C-alpha cells in the first residue's frame, strides 16, 4: 500500500487539543488547518478568495507536545504528512467521509511572519502530560460525530490553557525567564 503525502499551506483553524493515549502514554494533538486559494481579479483590481480546503491534522508523540506549545488559532503554518479519508456512519445512518492528515512536520509559515526556534529538552513536555488525569471521552469528527477508531481514546478533563498561558508555557519551556535567553545557549 502506498501512502499519499501532501504539504498544506494555510492557517490553524481550530484551537489545538492535546490528549494522551491511556494504553501507550503517547501524546496526540489534533487541530484543523484551512487553506483558501486566492487569485487576482483584473476586472475588480482586487484579490479574491477561491475554494477552501480543510483537513484535520493529527500530530503524535514529540511533534504533538512541541506543536501544542507553539501553535495558536489563526497561525499561518505549513504541514506535511500522510493524507487519508476516514469513513464512518452518522447518527442519521448516512455514510460520511472526513479528510485527515497524520503530520510528519509542522512549522510556521515564515513568509507571513517571524518565529524563534527553541530546541525541546528530552522528556520535558511528555512528563507534564503524563501527570494529567485523562477520563475517557469521544473524539469528535469534523461534523461532531465520534470517529469509531478513536472513540475510546481518553481525553484530559483539564481545561485547555489560554493563549497567554500557552505563550508563557512555550516561553518557559526552554528559556531563562529573567533574560529571555535559550537555556544552555552558548556565549
Give your account of this protein's structure.
This protein is mainly beta and 187 residues long. The protein has a domain at 5-112: Beta Barrel (OB fold (Dihydrolipoamide Acetyltransferase, E2P)), CATH 2.40.50. Helices cover 15% and strands 38% of the residues. It has 3 helices and 6 strands. It has helices at residues 61-70, 124-130, 163-173; strands at residues 4-12, 17-20, 27-41, 46-60, 76-89, 95-108. It has a 5-stranded mixed barrel. The longest helix is centred in the last third of the chain and has 11 residues, at 163-173. It is globular, with a radius of gyration of 19 Å.
Question: What's the arrangement of secondary structure elements?
Answer:
Layout: E1 4-12, E2 17-20, E3 27-41, E4 46-60, H1 61-70, E5 76-89, E6 95-108, H2 124-130, H3 163-173
Quick tags:
187 residues; OB fold (Dihydrolipoamide Acetyltransferase, E2P); five-stranded mixed barrel; 3 helices; globular
Q: Helix segment count?
A: 3
Low-confidence stretches: 125-157, 166-187
The CATH first-level class of the domain at 5-112 comes to Mainly Beta
Reported by name, the CATH topology of the domain at 5-112 is OB fold (Dihydrolipoamide Acetyltransferase, E2P)
Could you give the distance between the termini? 50 Å
**Strand element count:** 6
* Proportion in helices: 10-25%
Structural class: mainly beta
Mean pLDDT: 77
Content of β-strand: 35-45%
Spatial strand sequence of the major β-sheet: 1-3-4-6-5
